[in-house]
Amino acid sequence: MQTLDLFSDPISGQPEPMGPRAFLLRGFALPRVDELLPAIGSVSEAAPFRHMVTPGGFTMSVALTNCGTLGWTTDRHGYRYSRTDPASGLPWPAMPEVFSALAREAADAAGFPRFEPDACLINRYLPGARMSLHQDKNERDLDAPIVSVSLGMPAIFLFGGHQRSDKAARLELHHGDIAVWGGPDRLRYHGVLPLAEVPHPVLGSQRINFTFRKAG
Ligand code: MD3
Ligand code: FE
Fold this sequence. Notes:
By secondary structure, this protein is of the alpha+beta class. The chain has a single domain (16-213), classed as Jelly Rolls (Sandwich), CATH 2.60.120.590. It contains 2 helices and 13 strands. It has helices spanning 33-46, 97-109; strands spanning 16-19, 22-25, 63-68, 71-75, 78-82, 119-125, 131-134, 146-152, 155-159, 169-173, 178-181, 190-192, 207-213. The strands form 3 sheets. Strands 1-2-11-8-13-6-3 form a 7-stranded antiparallel β-sheet, with helices on one face. Strand 4 (71-75) and strand 5 form a beta hairpin. Fe (iii) ion (FE) is lined by residues 134, 136, 190.
């Protein structure tokens, strides 16, 4: 596994390298938060956050919804991307313009030009919610990067290797941080430790994470 350089340039505003093609852009979303929050509100009004069941029969502690042409879902039959919300049968809400613009700018800043995501998975964590180590590999285009935006309470992110058993580094993701990873880092195992309750001044006792993917 690649050495993680977590200490370089914490205040220079340069992307922090986490792997050869994985970058943490601290605070990159901050100038857009006031536009992002109402957009998340409209998406979740049309397609409410819900707790999905994994193929193994476990109910996820994270609640999720989607926007864009494709949305990630899971049920007893497996994980997949679908054009419609299984809860309503309707297409997922369109991706708000502010979402796609931000995803594209962040991908650009991390060296992935012309990123055009067609899927945005929005996760909501309440205190105690977690995400166990996994790879994101349901997307058809694994050459495209994934862009992840964190809002609200901080979380400890686990950044592993290409084998589930590889030792994972820990790194704190804060309100406004954006992570971008692609190339050899695209299929790394990753997860989130159970969320501690440290209420955020704007979002209160929750964390929202949204990840942009090219799924189709
Ligand atoms: C991989 N979400 O939805 S952000 C997921 O915070 C998911 O909700 C987590 O994993 C969340 O599939 C993690 C994703 C993330 C951030 C930075 C990474 C994954 C990364 C850096 C390198 C590799
Ligand atoms: Fe993931």
